[in-house]
Amino acid sequence: MTYVRNAWYVAAWAQDLEPDRPMAISILNEPIVLWSAEDRLVAFEDRCLHRLAPLSLGRCEGARLRCMYHGLLFDADGAVVQIPGQDMIPPQARLRSYPVELRHSWVWIWMGDPARADPALIPPAVGFDNPDYILGRGFLDYAAEARLINDNLLDFSHLSYVHAESFGAGPEFADERPRLTPLERGVRFERWVVGTHGPGRRKSDALIDSWQTYDFLLPGILLMWSGSFVAGTAERCGFAQPDYAEAIGAVTFTSQAVTPTGDRTARYFFSWGPHRDHGDEAIRDMLMTLADRAFAEDKVMIEAQQRVIDRTPSPRIMPTVHDRGVTLFNRLVERLARAEAGEAEAA
Amino acid sequence: MTYVRNAWYVAAWAQDLEPDRPMAISILNEPIVLWSAEDRLVAFEDRCLHRLAPLSLGRCEGARLRCMYHGLLFDADGAVVQIPGQDMIPPQARLRSYPVELRHSWVWIWMGDPARADPALIPPAVGFDNPDYILGRGFLDYAAEARLINDNLLDFSHLSYVHAESFGAGPEFADERPRLTPLERGVRFERWVVGTHGPGRRKSDALIDSWQTYDFLLPGILLMWSGSFVAGTAERCGFAQPDYAEAIGAVTFTSQAVTPTGDRTARYFFSWGPHRDHGDEAIRDMLMTLADRAFAEDKVMIEAQQRVIDRTPSPRIMPTVHDRGVTLFNRLVERLARAEAGEAEAA
Amino acid sequence: MTYVRNAWYVAAWAQDLEPDRPMAISILNEPIVLWSAEDRLVAFEDRCLHRLAPLSLGRCEGARLRCMYHGLLFDADGAVVQIPGQDMIPPQARLRSYPVELRHSWVWIWMGDPARADPALIPPAVGFDNPDYILGRGFLDYAAEARLINDNLLDFSHLSYVHAESFGAGPEFADERPRLTPLERGVRFERWVVGTHGPGRRKSDALIDSWQTYDFLLPGILLMWSGSFVAGTAERCGFAQPDYAEAIGAVTFTSQAVTPTGDRTARYFFSWGPHRDHGDEAIRDMLMTLADRAFAEDKVMIEAQQRVIDRTPSPRIMPTVHDRGVTLFNRLVERLARAEAGEAEAA
């Protein structure tokens, strides 16, 4: 399992984190307690310094967190401020804490060197605070390593097969290749599917050009815009953004985040919904119903793929033309992870 | 786990394999997809060449099988015939396929060298296509290695204890020893229990001689015929087959097959029923009810035995006189497995 | 996992062992069958000499135990006395048996050198046969190693936090330190909590002094007496036993036993109830309801602690002043275990 540590990982939907209620999460196999109190957001290693009881079973006391095994009290910087029955507090006793940010309705945790935790590296997702979009949200837990989910999102040709019944993309979708552009921290995919009647379940009478563009960014964040336009739009626009006012039906945005929780487990967060000027709540609800169905299809396939890989002595793959995005992204991850390992060794 | 690879393993009841519906099975810890289409029966390794997704989640298209992750299409010989979006197909790309035969209502898969896959080595079981017998069938999944189930079937003295309540064999059954004859690929067991009132739950008023003969054949196939006859028959016939016309009650046949699926898992297939001239559907149903009960008794004992073995640092056994069949068969397996390993090394 | 072998471990509540019904238990990861017949109590390794089937699936026949796989019969000393179908019985064939004693309503098994199994080393618990106490009982299975439960019982400061809602001890309980006295095979804890209104859920109007004394003894046995008295009693008595006649409310006794069953599993046995002169059945029932709630709180915390420890590469603890009892007891265990290992090596 190779992952970049110097990156912001999605830890939770902001809406799922209640004030004064510690929340247990896991990123890169490290147990973390996430809590917010008195407008401060904190992420600690989820183990008390005393006897390693999980602090996620603890109690918020103002801006402090108490371990509910033997009562040690920690301030929001991780320092021990009280040990019941004991006057002397070891001054160097301190919990490891992680840089944490709330942005675009996601709680982001930096898993690498805290000195490099630059919030400017948080991908520009669209959150529920953005008035332009009407979004729904959810998450799914996978019994598979995050990389396999990344690979899935880096090759949309699977839409024609895994989602033949749900998204109804049709085999012609997998026959076309998107334009790929390497980015500093990811890959951009741009695609027009030209002159079809649209995906199977939402066919239009007129011929349409379907537009879709997404960035897939470190550590595993997908940000995608898409819409359908009258035939000829693709030829006219090229890969410039089409004029939403000319859209047939909704223009939608989806953000998806893949967080490795353990060696063979991951949490997959997602939102989806229309632009407010080109869709409404009913369309959002329809999209979320569709997402629940389609993302369950991915989960069945990817977890089964993981089980096959685990039973294969020396697993080898045979890349196809559609793996270019997968390869670009995974090489980026390996290059950065190698650089991190080198720095760690030099230090 | 020592097993012979050059043997036909039972993969499924033919009735459980639907046309155009790929079926996931596992033999010797290898994931296999079994499918039939256009009157052809095929067994492939259950992993796509591309990214190791299981083909058992795939779709039959005529006599071809499509991976439903990214759409690679395979012909019935395992060759890739289509890669969506890609013109060039690597000519050497080919799935491993296994020799497979449908016979006696069982699907048999050859796990060894394909060049040696001789259908004449398929044990002469009685299938549902045999008009002489009225059979029922089933299978059970074990959390135990196949060898322990073989051992069970190679020593019927357990009938007096494991099945004291179901088959009701009585302690006298375990006091007698069957005649054993080594076969080229197994062991023959022949037995008369003389002058009893029959097993506990099906007692007769008159004294009877109970006859039972079975072959236990590689890789783990039991074929057994049995019946009850008037006292004196044993003395008159010796080990020649008695005249079924003189049977008291039913003359029955059962075939049982033990397939190692993983290191600590096995699937146990079975059929049972009377000869059509010496029994009827009601007797078959009674026998199947009895089999469900008795085979569950074996499963409880053998899975518990497996758990004890797994917790024993250096497990040792103390053979008894009844282990002669177990020993004969397991030595045969070891001898053949050693020969296979030697050939593999020489090659 | 370091445990002392030369000690009596609690195997079961006597009431849970039915005559002629073999019972499967596990101590220090060794499978053991416990059975009583014809007034004899026996503990064997739970694996038949023949093929390692568990004898706990066996059948008592008078003072003998029969393996119900192939019928081997063992006498109460573990000798084979019958092998079906076989005349010769290997004279040296014998099951390992464990010294076993029934005392204070518990079945105790000695896991060490049988020659040292001195019943005088059985801790002086109070059983249901003691007319002075009205007791209830139970047990809980833990997915955690026994040592973590011992540690919990060796530091009652957790009452203020883990049991804040159930026992309602209040933070002042954890602020006080008990008097500790090292014993030859354990540690004594004595404590007065002076001048409070008692624990939260059972507050009294008058000020009271709460008295509590317990011994924690090898291998993991807690024996505790406690009661509440008028304020001033503590000062008058010191650590001498107060006069029960002056108790406010019940004087109670509890015995608790922690038995390591596997590497990460344990069984926790407990009784609790009032002295007959200072309480009744209603109080016992109230205490058992409270115990069920409070011991479930411990289980949640300790199993979570175990999971954190298992995910921590090099787990380190930071002892506090309350860990003195934990440290004393664990050092005693380590010293004795080391001595046992040394003797084993010398032998």
Automatic annotation (TrEMBL), chains A, B, C:
InterPro entries: Cholesterol_7-desaturase (IPR050584), Rieske_2Fe-2S (IPR017941), Rieske_2Fe-2S_sf (IPR036922), VanA_C_cat (IPR044043). It comes from the Bacteria. One of its GO terms (molecular function) is 2 iron, 2 sulfur cluster binding. The keyword Ligase does not apply. The keyword Transmembrane helix does not apply. Residues 8-109 form the Rieske domain. Keywords: 2Fe-2S, Dioxygenase, Iron, Iron-sulfur, Metal-binding, Oxidoreductase. It holds the Pfam family Rieske. This is Aromatic ring-hydroxylating dioxygenase subunit alpha. It comes from Sphingobium limneticum.
